[in-house]
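Run log, item B.
One chain of 141 residues. Sequence copied directly from the ordering sheet:
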Amino acid sequence: MSRTSIGPRNFLGNSIAYPSGGRTGDNCLLATKVMNSPGRGDSRGVGLLGSPSFEIPRSVERDGRFDHLRTGDELPRRLSAKNRYNIRTMGYYLFVRWLHVFLLTGLGVAAIQVSGAFADLAIAGFFALGFVISGYLCCAG
């Protein structure tokens, strides 16, 4: 066994291979499917991608195009608009899921209430309508 070191404030992507003896410094991005080489050394403030890993830029010139939006009266106004939109989206999502559960529960109870010769047909109808409703609400929601 050997010592492995992952620095603070690192982001570890999906499906990474971090071998025994690997080291990274702080503020590193280990992207998806990266393999950190043990001989690489103590990387700091870089992004690593691929196997074997190579450095990728953490920021580029175009990232600075919107820096003017971080200051002034524009930032609070835009954040407020974004929060209103997000709350509206969450409410819509929750309503659609509630409607889904409500409709399936109502259909299930109605199908169970049927007895006699049509009981099997009612259960089959419940499953068929359940699939149709679930498909519609999943695609529409």
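Observations after the first pass:
- The first helix runs from residue 74 to 113.
- Strands lie at 5-6, 11-12, 23-24, 29-30, 47-49, 54-56.
Flagged for discussion on Thursday.
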